[in-house]
Amino acid sequence: MTRAAVGIALRPEHIQHLVSCPVKELWFEVRAEDHMGGGAGDPAQVEDLRNAGHEISLHGAGLSLAGTAQADPGRLAALKRLADRVEPILVSEHLAWPRLDGRCLPDLLPVPRTNEVLARCARNIGRVQDLLGRRILIENPVHYLDLRDHSWTETSFLSELSRRSGCGLLVDVNNVAVAAHNIGFIASEWLDAIPEGCVCEIHLAGHMPDPEGTLLVNSDDAPVSDQVWQLYRRLADRVGPRPTLIEGARSFATLMHERSRARNILDGEMALAA
Fold first, then answer.
1. Would 1 be classed as within a structural domain?
2. What integer pLDDT is reported at residue 14 of this predicted model?
């Protein structure tokens, strides 16, 4: 994958368009849990994409890296088997704790940024990386309310987590924009504070107001907003081109249009650097 490659999230309804898609350097993100055994994913679809010359990344949400318990050995083993079979270009995971006392929770719960949690996250990430034999990327979470008594700012927490564990960062620009609106910080300053060398991938997605109009919430149906495009250009201008993924359940044509827009931004950054 080149640094300017732009991909889209794999959706079953788009598969008929994807295998024969002639676009060069089009890669696809696969939800890891769907293909780890017992999931809804079709292994043949991933194989068809790989055979057609498209690269695959794995993105997970179930390792509970911020949780008090170590990652489930069975889940880790299944992820290892999947990674060995798919040979993904990137493996990423959310920074959250969706599991508690053996129960799987429906939400990616927020992380208190304390020294204890930082050390725990770094240990958990290290175990995962050791088992997989590869570096993983950690995605910044979205926020709908502000937790109190943090010991670290979010950007310093993520930067230190990367330093301690050796992981990279997946910067979801939409998550930054949504959180900035909901809890009151400046999104551009957040992006400016992330060290360039930590950023290994970027996500772009959509959002919309909640029914009461007070919060912004992530939405697979909403297009990438003008604000997110502006923030993306700002980040790419500072850190240079990075592999970028367009998320969402919009039409294939819409996703490909947004992909072209992202690619034009990255191509412009590469031209300036030349």
1. no
2. 79
| Contact yes or no for 96/46 (Cβ under 8 A) | no
Q: Rounded CA gap, 210 and 208, in Å?
A: 7
CATH number at residue 25: 3.20.20.150
Reported as a single tens digit per residue, the pLDDT across 97-116 is: 655 555 554 456 678 899 99
Task: Flag whether 201 is in a domain.
Answer: yes
Range of the domain at 263: 6-273
* Model-wide pTM > 0.85: yes
Q: What span, in angstroms and rounded, lies between the C-alpha atoms of 199 and 193?
A: 11
Contacts of 69 (CB under 8 A, 6+ apart): 99
pLDDT of residue 240: 95
Residue with tokens 């050791």: 130
Q: How many domains does the chain have?
A: 1
Residue 265 lies in a domain: yes
Structure-derived torsion over alpha carbons of residues 113, 118, 120, 121, reported in degrees to the nearest 10: 90
- Give the pairing of strands 206-209 and 216-219: antiparallel
The beta-carbon contacts of 107-114 under 8 Å, at least 24 apart in sequence, are 108/61, 108/141, 108/142, 110/141, 110/143, 110/145, 110/147, 111/66, 111/141, 112/147, 112/149, 112/150, 113/150, 113/151, 113/152, 113/153, 113/154, 113/157, 114/149, 114/150, 114/151, 114/152
Query: Where do the H-state alpha helices sit in 194-251?
Result: 226-239
